[in-house]
Amino acid sequence: MGWQSKYVTEFPQFARVKRALEIGAGGFTTAIELSNRFHDKHFHGIDFVLSDLALKNLKAAPSNLTVLKHDARDLELFAEGYFDLVYSVAVMEHICELELHLAETYRVLRPGGSYWFWQAPFWSCSLGHHYRHSKVDCPIPDYAHLHMTRDRLEMHIIENGSTPEVAKRAVDFIYDRPDLSRMGRTDTRGIVESSPFEIAEWRDEVDSRYDPVGAARVLANNIYNVPEEDLLYKGAKVHLKKKD
Ligand SMILES: C[S@@+](CC[C@H](N)C(=O)[O-])C[C@H]1O[C@@H](n2cnc3c(N)ncnc32)[C@H](O)[C@@H]1O
């Protein structure tokens, strides 16, 4: 099993789940893997983009998986209380208007149902810019998106040997893409706390790339007013519960 599927099956009451919804399923690899493995459950997967990879993978989708191209901020197509479990992996940091997503997720869960998600990387961590952040040739220095202005970062990328086209593509991606919340850990947690959910568990994940020199640069020129504590954390594993 891939690590995303393993994470989902770690959900404490996973064995009892009958209907589950994956938010932001991407290539649908996890939804397909879980549906193939757990025939006693019905999975639904939504994403507001059905990528070429998703369409290719979905040719082999099993019958206990329903796929929908849909926005996570509006789950009106599902009846209230329909799911036992909603889960997402590396999606929450992409959803702007998180309040809407949480309110809708709460509505489609049955009383006692859970939203189980892993969120990373937060905008407020070393790699929160998301631009080729898992690639060795990433041209963005850790934390630079938090302490350099857009123009300064674009210039920095050019000064370090990339073409102006590459630099422009990078800053356009970081600052203009609509599917990135650009929220740090504290703001995200504040929105979750204001939602109707009860936080059953919130496990902060430390940023293994945390660097005091980079953090000091952010604090010296803190463009987004990131709280100092946020710089320590890369992500969070979270269990939200709908009241019984
Ligand atoms: C980083 S990818 C993660 C994909 C998959 N969960 C995985 O772990 O491989 C984020 C996914 O969330 C989707 N997404 C972002 N905002 C969304 C929204 N408002 N509604 C539905 N899907 C969204 C994107 O299209 C993308 O497929």
Automatic annotation (TrEMBL):
The chain positions of domain Methyltransferase type read 21-116
Q: Which InterPro entries does the entry link to? A: Methyltransf_11 (IPR013216), SAM-dependent_MTases_sf (IPR029063)
Q: Which UniProt keywords apply?
A: Methyltransferase, Transferase
Tell me yes or no: is Transport among this UniProt entry's keywords.
no
Q: What is this protein called?
A: Class I SAM-dependent methyltransferase
Which GO molecular function entries does the Swiss-Prot or TrEMBL record give?
methyltransferase activity
Quick one: a GO biological-process term for this protein?
Answer: methylation
> What organism, scientifically named, is this protein from?
Qipengyuania qiaonensis
Highest taxon in the source lineage? Bacteria
